[in-house]
Amino acid sequence: MSSIKKSKSFNVTKLFEFESDEKLTFLVGAGASVEAPSQLPSTNDAMKALIKLSCANSEIEAILKLQNLRFEVLVGIIHKSIEDDFQFLNFFTKSDKPNLEHFVLAEMIKKGHFIFTSNFDYLLEYALLQSDVPKKKIVPVITKKDYEKFSDPEKLYKNGKIPIYKIHGSHRNIITGEDTRTSFINTLKLIGLNQTKSNIVQLEPYKAQFLDKISNDRSLIIIGYSGKNDFDLMSTLKIMKNLKNLIWINHISNGGSKEDLYEFGAQKSSDLKNLDKLDQALLEIKQLNGSVNVFRLNVNTSKFLEKFFKEKEKLSKDKFTIDLMEWLKTNIDEPNELTKLFISYKIYSETKNYTDALRCLERIFRISEDSGNAQWKAIALMEMGIINYVQSNYSDALEWLRKALQVQLKLKAFPQRTSIFKYIALIHQVQKNYSKASQNFELALKENERIKDFYEKSKLYKHIGINYQYQEKYQDALKYFEAAIKINDKLENLSEKAINYKQIGKIYYSKKSFNEALKYLNEALKLNEQLENLEDKAEILNLLGRIFHEMGDSLNGLGKCNEALRIYYRLKNSKGKLDSLNYLGII
């Protein structure tokens, strides 16, 4: 029996009508700014232009075919490789011509509905201004300070203010004139650094309260997203548990005025693999949050929304005509051949195409060796080592990293030395050569002191703590985990803090200090629940189950392990399921 059926009872149109008293929240993506006269490129078109600018000519065709490359990851790779503080994204601030979708959304905002967007442009602000909303009433929420001050949209509306929440930030607050580029850069850097952190709250916990406020007992309408490669968005939607309805407007460019609404059921679909990515994701959201009604509306978005827009004279007759590719060529320095190959390598690496990644590194190595460029030669050797480490080819990885170490000795400055020593240490750790691992972690720490990377320092402390933990040198391990937590607190890095609490809990469990173990594991559990990190939550629940059993409270232990088992079933994690079943068998 199919979990997706055509819906005849639910009426999306009524939600938009003036007399509707339904509370709405709109999530707006790049697709909303594509139609004339705005004419900004879609995410796919923007990615094509950036790939053509920044990748090696020999790799462009293959990279364009990659299905799992996210826009934010691509942007992070380019930024880190050309170090230009995301100047190449300035293009998205150039259009000042809102389209029909922006004006309809402006009317929705004026009625008191909430809106948040991942777009960098200012087109929603322009639409509000051109809809005669006084400038002083509009509140773009961009920086951490903004989110802390304006996390309650209900309160803002009562005070006559109209907020626009920009979840990925923006270059500038065009209402106040504040330069918000630093906040914008920091958010994009976070996304680039943390490929495994899936949702907004895991990256920036201060946005948790805002997400809760805009979710509670509301209908969420998603506009301008394809669903094909919006992994971070999907993960964020899964944590918006108190929604009434989720309606995904799936744009059909040649759909005319036809509207097809589908509803997703909670029962498991046996043919999940045969569904497109969007249907798979929506079905999973429904299975995780059974009380939320989940819909997909297949429609031409502009055709659907035009019935709610009566003042078409507001639309600019002039169109935004700057071509992104031409603008990039004029405004951004084209990377050199080695940088293009490195960007190509990083894209393959992040999308787990390791054979192609190594091929690009071999070319960098050959070119740098022929030209006598020791910097690039060391980078190529180091990255070969890292790729082999990721694939568990530890002997090869160690060989490449040692060669990188030899080459970089010729260089006065080489910031990547920290990474070389760290990965050598991690290999020794996997091979249970804890003494050599410890020596190399200490060398990595020493190198890191030169560049003052506190994020990396906290991770090194964690790795050293784990190294001592493996040797059952628990006091030394605790010292390093606690030092890591101090840095986590300064950086407000809750996900790393949760890991360190979990490790401390494991140490106390190993020492049979059950009350201390429960204290730290419960702290880790609370953080992972806040961050919606289900994998770690399930692991901790299994540990708690074992501890309760050993303390003589087997009933509580069974409850914890069963809760972990349910999470692993939801995550389709076979290893986790086996662990839970094994612990249940022991109890």
Automatic annotation (TrEMBL):
InterPro entries (UniProt xref):
DHS-like_NAD/FAD-binding_dom (IPR029035), TPR-like_helical_dom_sf (IPR011990), TPR_rpt (IPR019734)
Pfam families tied to this protein: SIR2_2 (PF13289), TPR_12 (PF13424)
Task: Supply the name of the protein.
Answer: Uncharacterized protein
Q: Which residues form a coiled coil?
A: 517-544
Name the source organism.
Answer: marine sediment metagenome
Q: Which UniProt keywords apply?
A: Coiled coil
SMART domains on file: TPR (SM00028)
